[in-house]
Structure formats: structure tokens, C-alpha cells
Design brief:
266 residues; Rossmann fold; nine-stranded mixed β-sheet; 29% helix; globular
């Protein structure tokens, strides 16, 4: 799995790190695998960068996804005075990155050009990044109709993202929440999960987990999150029919429980 940093400039400057599937041919140089791969655009949490989630993002890339992580200009881990109110601009940032990458991938000229399947676009985010992608999936302010699958890690409804929620059909959504999260309360994820009465939705309850460890570490909980999210993307973005595998991976006694259709697993 290879990483490539790319600056995208308009009124805002976005730093985007791209990870993609790769292989080593006989001459020994690591190069991208041939073919078109689904794209997953990732939104980090407040005062976080993509490097905090590198194990999870590498798992996704290794599973056959082009993964583009957006380090937001006013809330990333390097900003001296981060401004959380800038979250209102983040759905637009992610939407811009989706369209720019789709366009550039079709034009050639970069190491990852020609790798993206333009109709297979997913988004994922953690904490404030989860708020961002949830709004892009389900809020009238920010809905992006290119998105085909959504992973919300410890997300919530951000009040400043105005509009109605679940007023139109949504893509399949997976909500992941630590049951002992001291930053994003369980009720916030449950609100999002149960808000959609008709769409395809899953809830992965990480038993005893707090706000960051299930996504940023390298333990048993992180392994479950990686497996379940990959199976979810395989099912709803790659079309590989992995619901059975996802349900099995999401039930680990004492560590995780997976439910769907509005049920909260325990």
C-alpha cells in the first residue's frame, strides 16, 4: 500500500493523502494494481490527521479501495489555533475532493490516475469527520448523490449543518460507536442510526470502547472495526456480497456486537 500527498487548491487549500492497492512486479518497483477500484474519501476528526488512522486506512487500501483522506485546513493536527466551527465547510471539502479525483483519474498523468471506478464512491469519517459524512448522506444541506456507501465512526448531528434529515432515500450506512465514548455520547450515534426508518443501516457497538482507540490503535477492537468496515464496503461499494461475513465479524463476545434495521446490539 502506497501513500501519495496531493495539494488541491481553490479558495481553500486541502491536503489529501491517497492510499491505493499496489503490487510488486518482477522488476521490484512498487506500483498501483491495474484496474478500476472504488474510491473512499475519509474525513478525520477534530485536531486529527490521516496519520492517526493509518492502520485502518491501510486496511481499506489493501482490501482494494483507493482511499483519499482529507486533512481539513482549519481543524487538522498541525493547526496552531483550530476552529471547530469550520466543520460547516467540511461537507463541501469532501464533495470537492470526490469530483476532483474522479476528474483527474480519468485524465491521466498521476500515479493513481485511471484507478477510480467513477460510479463507486464511498465516504467515511470519525468524530467531527463522522458528522461531516453523515450530513453528506442524509441532510438536505449537504446531500451528495454520488455517494453509494457511508461509514460513520462516532458521529453525530452537527447543529450548524441546517436542513431536514432523511427526507430522501439514503445510501447504505454503517454506524460505529464506543459504548464508553466520553466525547461523542452513545445517544448521538443512536439518533443518527434510528433516524432513517427505511434505509439500509447497521450499528456496530464497540463494547467498553472510548472515542479514539477503536479507530486509531492496533488492538482487538481496531481489528474488528477494520474487518466490519471492509465487509460493509465490499457489500455496498464493491458488490462482493459480504453481509454474512460482516455479521460474523461484528459479533465478538466482550468486544463488539453488530445490529441492523434500528436494533441496538449488546
Amino acid at each position: 500500500m502506497r501513500e501519495h500527498s496531493h495539494a488541491v487548491a481553490t479558495v481553500r487549500v486541502l491536503r489529501v493523502t491517497i492510499r491505493f492497492p499496489e503490487f510488486v512486479p518482477s522488476h521490484g518497483e512498487v506500483v498501483p494494481k491495474a484496474g478500476l477500484f472504488p474510491l473512499v474519501v475519509f474525513a478525520p476528526g477534530f485536531i486529527q490527521c490521516d496519520t492517526s488512522y493509518h492502520r485502518l486506512l491501510r486496511q481499506w487500501a489493501s482490501a482494494g479501495y483507493v482511499v483519499a483522506a482529507v486533512n481539513f485546513p482549519d481543524t487538522n493536527c498541525h493547526v496552531a489555533k483550530p476552529d471547530e466551527a469550520d466543520l460547516v465547510n467540511q461537507p463541501g471539502d469532501v464533495a470537492f475532493v470526490i469530483r476532483r479525483l474522479r476528474s483527474q483519474a480519468n485524465q491521466g498523468g498521476d500515479g493513481w490516475a485511471g484507478l477510480i471506478a467513477p460510479a463507486r464512491i464511498g465516504i467515511a469519517g470519525q468524530s467531527d469527520g463522522g458528522d461531516t459524512v453523515a450530513a453528506m448522506a442524509a441532510a438536505s444541506c449537504c446531500r451528495d448523490h454520488l455517494v453509494r456507501a457511508v461509514v460513520v465512526l462516532a458521529g453525530a448531528v452537527w447543529p450548524a449543518l441546517h436542513g431536514s434529515w432523511y427526507a430522501s432515500p439514503t445510501p447504505p450506512m454503517l454506524f460505529v460507536q464506543g459504548s464508553a465514548d466520553s466525547i461523542n455520547p452513545v445517544a448521538a450515534s443512536v439518533q443518527l442510526y434510528r433516524g432513517d426508518k427505511t434505509g439500509i443501516r447497521y450499528y456496530l457497538n464497540m463494547l467498553g470502547a472510548d472515542h479514539l482507540a477503536p479507530y486509531e490503535g492496533n488492538g482487538k477492537q481496531e481489528a474488528v472495526v477494520a474487518l466490519v468496515t471492509v465487509d460493509f464496503l465490499n457489500q455496498y461499494l464493491a458488490g462482493e456480497h459480504s453481509v454474512g461475513a460482516m455479521l460474523r465479524a461484528g459479533h465478538v463476545p466482550g468486544i463488539a456486537a453488530l445490529g441492523r434495521g434500528g436494533k441496538i446490539p449488546s
